[in-house]
Amino acid sequence: MGYQQWRHLTFLHWRVPPEQVRSKLPRGMELDTFDGSAWIGLVPFLMDGVRPRWAPAVPGVSRFPETNVRTYVTRVNGEGEWEPGVYFFSLDAAKWPAVLIARTVWSLPYFRATMSVDRDGDRALYRSRRLWPGPRGAGGRIEVTAAGPPAPALPGTLDHFLAERYLLFTSARGAILRGQVHHTPYPLRSAQADQLDDSLVAAAGFAGLSGSEETTGRPPDHVCFSEGVDVEIFQLRRG
């Protein structure tokens, strides 16, 4: 359906009890766990080169920051096989067209926000503030430092469980929709969160994890960084 480039990604994750997440999933989705825990992710990054397959990228439209709050699920496909994927609780983006198309056409929970992504060597700084729809003002400031050489995650590791997901699931009018992406494995680096002032995770229904100006959270249980990948996007389908 189209092409995108995902750049300067930070993956911040918290370990949470499965029952805290399972009740928030639509009927028909199964929670995917690692070491007996569910995982809530906060992933800020830069979208670039966003375009349909039949048209070039448009300057000023095809490049914008995005941040998603997510967890990990599985679902049985038509052949009876379990497919691991991502379920998004929210996706904030800095372009109105992207938000409106995603909400109306793909039934994805996108929100319009003012956002920025800045790089300085191994350091990355993300800022965001939600505008529409509410809760207005959710967002914050995240600063991380990456370390070590990039490398793909090994199957069976937590890095692989959290990063290497090629399906997304969403629900619309009682039906489960399935979307596929394709890209090479992420080149991942270890990272640490130097500053984490965030309220997007709490706005998604998970208070007490990431911190904000109003609440005190706890440090993430896992942080990693990637320079990014080039992505092929496929149409959402029932299933």
UniProtKB/TrEMBL annotation:
Q: Name one Pfam family in it.
A: DUF2071
Highest taxon of the source?
Bacteria
In terms of InterPro entries, this protein maps to: ADC_dom_sf, DUF2071
Instruction: Please report the name of this protein according to its UniProt entry.
Output: DUF2071 domain-containing protein
Organism of origin: Alienimonas chondri
